[in-house]
Amino acid sequence: MQVQLAAYSEYLQVERQVSAHTLSAYRSDLAKVLDFAQQQGLASWRDLQVLQLRELVAELHKGGLTGRSIARLLSAVRGLYAYLVREGICQHDPAAGIRPPKGPRKLPKVLDVDRAQQLLDSPVADDFSACRDHAILELLYSSGLRLSELVGLNIADIDLQQGLVVVLGKGNKQRMLPVGSKAVAAIQHWLTVRGQTKTDNQALFIGVRGRRMSPQLVRERVRQAGARDLGQHLHPHMLRHSFASHILESSHDLRAVQELLGHADISTTQIYTHLDFQHLAQVYDQAHPRARRKPTE
User: Fold this and answer.
1) In the chain, what are the domains?
2) What b/e string do you get for 8-39 counting C-beta neighbours within 10 Å, with b at 16 or more?
3) Sequence-ordered alpha helix ranges (H) in 203-235
4) What is the pLDDT of residues 40-68, one digit of tens each?
5) Can you tell me whether residue 297 is helix, strand or coil?
6) Could you list the active site residues?
7) Cα distance between residue 283 and residue 200, in whole Å
8) In 10 A of CB 191, how many CB atoms?
9) What is the spatial distance between Cα 290 and Cα 284, in angstroms, rounded to a whole number?
10) CB 180 within 8 Å of CB 163
11) Using one digit for the tens of pLDDT, what is the confidence trace for 197-233?
12) Under 8 Å between Cβ of 158 and 165
């Protein structure tokens, strides 16, 4: 079973070319399934049945694993068995028909427009790290990039004259995005500062030693900016959420937001309609003299 799991992992990495993050998540999930199967005394993936997998799901949920995490695990199992069936190793999928437990749907946290302006209009020191970090914040909010897309950018990927950036998203899919004038100006200034560093690295954003910035470093720098300029927790994805929410609030064009974010399924984008309605409901409650709700409501 371990050998077949390793072969599937190699298939995901080499043939499917999934991201390192997705590969790591699937390996972790399938390791849980393998441990459970071995505890049950199963000798082959052919022996894992629906009732046993349901038992594992119940155990994990009881242990505190969220419905979203269980859904990802079941997706990993379905992918594994699709591979095993194609290879002639199995003839069934024990995850077929199993639905993860539903949990409360959490709306993404966003900055309102004023808070986003406060963050980006805060004074910027004229040094290497400050100029770079300001350009990162501007680009994250301007174009709604994922963290992985941001750290993967090279200088050649951005056209400042046209105000465009080409990013490599999930599934190695490229998309072209507009870059706002404020972000263009911040990146132009950063590139001037960056040019004073001796490095052959083509990454758009580098550290003081000339190496491509890691996701961990970007998260930490964004966190520091949030604490310093807003007095609150801030992470890169919150800027992506804010970008999407503010665009949808102004345009009401869900399909355009889907394209900008690089979502394969529009249902993923629809969560921002809940944010938009939440905002409208708050305005309604505050403005309509006969619609104001009691505090308990």
Assistant:
1) 2-86 (1.10.150.130), 113-271 (1.10.443.10)
2) bbebbeeeeebbeebeebbbebbebbbebbee
3) 215-229
4) 999 999 999 999 999 999 999 888 888 88
5) coil
6) 146, 170, 237, 240, 263, 272
7) 52
8) 16
9) 10
10) yes
11) 889 999 999 999 999 999 999 999 999 999 999 999 9
12) yes
Query: For the chain, how big is the Rg over CA atoms in Å?
Result: 23
CA distance 68 to 166: 30
Strands of the 174-178 sheet, one edge to the other: 158-159, 164-168, 174-178
Rounded to 10 deg, the angle between the 20-39 and 67-86 helix axes is 80
Say what the pTM is: 0.66
From 107, 124, 171, 116, select the one nearest 144 (Cα to Cα).
116
Q: CA of 75: how far to CAs of 72, 100, 150, in Å?
A: 5, 10, 27
**In whole angstroms, what is the distance from residue 54 CA to residue 50 CA?**
6
Give Cβ neighbours of residue 53 (< 8 Å, ≥ 6 apart). Answer: 33, 77, 94, 95, 98
* Predicted local distance difference test score (pLDDT) of residue 297: 45
Token pair listed for 223 = 């966190």
**Residues present in the chain in total:** 297
Angstrom distances, CA of residue 49 to CA of 65, 93, 95: 21, 8, 8
Rounded CA gap, 272 and 277, in Å? Answer: 9
The helix or strand, by DSSP H or E, that contains position 177, with its residue range, turns out to be strand 174-178
